[in-house]
Design brief:
Nucleoside Triphosphate Pyrophosphohydrolase, 3 helices, 42% strand, alpha+beta, 139 residues
C-alpha cells in the first residue's frame, strides 16, 4: 500500500490565561479536525503545516521547530502518515481561502481533545497540552 506524507498543525493561543486550540470542520462538515495537507515536492513538513493552517483555518503564526509526533490513517486507498507541529497563532484573518466551506472555532484545550478525530491525533493533542502546561509553569 502507498504511503502519502502529510503535515498538520495544532493552532493554539493563550487567551485569558488559558490554552485554546483552533479546530476546523472537515470538508463535509461532519467532524472537527485540525489543518493538514500533503507535503508537496520541495516543501518541508513545517512549511506545509503553516501553509495548510493559513488555507484551511485562516490563521498563521510561529511553527515549532520540532514535531510533536506523527499518526497514520487510511485515505485514497493509501496510508497517510501525518507529522504534527504546534503553531502559536499570531495572526487571524477575516477571510481565507477555504472559508466558504469550513468553520473554525476556538475551544478550551481539553474540549479540543474530546472533539478531534481520529483518536490517534487526539492523543497527540493531549501530549501537546501537557507540554504547554510544563512550559507555562516554567515561565
Amino acid at each position: 500500500m502507498n504511503t502519502i506524507l502529510q503535515a498538520s498543525a495544532i493552532p493554539y493561543r493563550i487567551y485569558k490565561n488559558e490554552l485554546q486550540i483552533l479546530i476546523i470542520t472537515s470538508r463535509n462538515k461532519k467532524k472537527w479536525i485540525i489543518p493538514k495537507g500533503i507535503i508537496e515536492s520541495g516543501d518541508t513538513a513545517r512549511s506545509t503545516a503553516l501553509k495548510e493552517t493559513r488555507e484551511e483555518a485562516g490563521v498563521s503564526g510561529k511553527v515549532a521547530d520540532v514535531s510533536i509526533g506523527n499518526y497514520t490513517y487510511k485515505k485514497w486507498n493509501s496510508n497517510c502518515k501525518v507529522e504534527l507541529f504546534a503553531l502559536h497563532v499570531t495572526d487571524i484573518y477575516d477571510s481565507w481561502e477555504e472559508s466558504s466551506f469550513r468553520k473554525r472555532k476556538w475551544v478550551k484545550a481539553k474540549r479540543a481533545v474530546k472533539k478531534i478525530e481520529p483518536a490517534s491525533l487526539a492523543s497527540l493533542v493531549e501530549k501537546f497540552i501537557k507540554s504547554v502546561k510544563i512550559d507555562l509553569i516554567e515561565l
